[in-house]
Amino acid sequence: MNRLTTRYRAAAVAVVVAAIAAIIGLAPHLGFTNTGAPLWSERPVAVVPAAAVPAPNWVELAKTLKPAVVNISTKRVDEQGKMQNPFGDNEQFREFFKQFGIPQEQQRHAVRSMGSGFVVNADGYIVTNNHVVDGATEIRVKMADGREVPGKVVGRDPKTDLALLKVEATGLPVIPFGDSSQLQVGEPVMAIGNPFGLEQTVTTGIVSATGRVIGQGPYDDFIQTDASINPGNSGGPLINSRGQVVGINNAIFSQSGGSVGIGFAIPINQVKPVVTQLASSGKVTRGWLGVSIQQLTPELAKGFQMSDSSGALVASVQPDSPAAKAGLKAGDVITRFDGQTIAHSSDLPRLVANAPVGRQVALTVMREGKPVTLNISVAQMDEPGQVVASAQGEESKGALGLTVESITPDKAKDMKLANSHGVLVRDVRSGSPAENAGIRAGDVITEVDRQAVTDAANLKRVLAKHPKGAPIVVMIQRDGASLYVALLA
What we know:
Blueprint: H1 2-30, H2 58-65, E1 69-80, H3 91-99, E2 107-121, E3 125-129, H4 130-133, E4 138-142, E5 148-150, E6 152-157, E7 162-166, E8 188-193, E9 201-212, E10 222-225, E11 237-239, E12 245-252, E13 263-267, H5 268-281, E14 287-288, E15 291-295, H6 298-303, E16 312-317, H7 322-326, E17 333-337, E18 340-341, H8 347-354, E19 360-367, E20 370-377, E21 379-380, E22 402-406, H9 409-414, E23 423-428, H10 433-436, E24 444-448, E25 451-452, H11 456-464, E26 472-478, E27 481-487
Antiparallel strand pairs: 1-2, 1-4, 2-3, 3-7, 4-5, 6-7, 8-9, 8-11, 9-10, 10-13, 11-12, 12-13, 14-21, 15-16, 16-17, 17-18, 17-19, 19-20, 22-23, 23-24, 24-25, 24-26, 26-27
């Protein structure tokens, strides 16, 4: 027995020794050096001690804030299938249609939908999404205590998808507003709402990203969160660990219709001025400069002598607009508005929209590589409207992959163009620099390297003078709007 044990011990020692030898031999492959130190760092990231950042007490916050979250149900009338009488509302014709069984009365179907909202003022003011109440013929608001009362729309703003409702009630619990500009990626948040009609549902997660542009409208600036948001959560609050609302749940990204951990909320700092105006006048008045802008790409930035691609590139300036009167020009890059830096082109519309109408504002622009300061008076926004093209003619293909033709006054008239300057793009070769830059058939080239293009021959002359290897900055007209693109030849 002892001998057996000794033999096993000896075998075990041999195995251990062999293993150690193997590990030493394999050490470089496993990430260890011969000294036994790992090649990578295992030092923990230095963060604020946990004691300084207490974990959110979601249980107590949910108890306190749920009573301020409401369920909003709406009824819409969906009108279908009315056959119009071309001769007007005539009794004989009504009888004729009736005789032959042709329906004249409109089919009216009541469509019901649900959403969420939350109380922002104890006297019965409730914030929700515009799409929750848009077109509603009846609005019912159900409180956390089970009371159900009619709701009235005080004002709506489709551009930010916000609406303010009023119910006849007082002494209601409210959720305080926070500061969404202070939100940090990774910060914990809680959503409360009525997903799929399941009232007073609470979910938690983190801020996944800020400043998201998702194509919802001209003032996109969404908070992205992985806190579960589903249909019915729309209009409900996104709450930080201090119990303040920092966003209004608005949209989800989903291929199934349910949450996949990508939800979007409107930042509360964008909500504040809208709700203030809706409460006072029932509508939102926005500032306007009269410019069309676009984001600078790295190639365009190089072409406009910019050190980086921050700022908003002015593609066109409307005649008689505040921008035109202030001396703003196409090709200027707006870098500051009223003292605030423009990091991305999407920053400018939000800042201008929130600027008080009639206010004089300082604008910093980069023009031909040099800073210029302009003073501009913000006007009130009105809504726009615009055009297209097609043709046959002169060849100008070559290295850029473009076929163009000059525009005659008659052609400009047929295409409803403002003037006959520029050249019409007839064709773009597949895989060419022109196609890579986004130019397409029907575009009108009006400018190359900041020089006006009058016809196809002029275009060739301007391109011949272009420095080799530098991006070619081209202005095009498309559907009535101006746009800069950069070609890399």
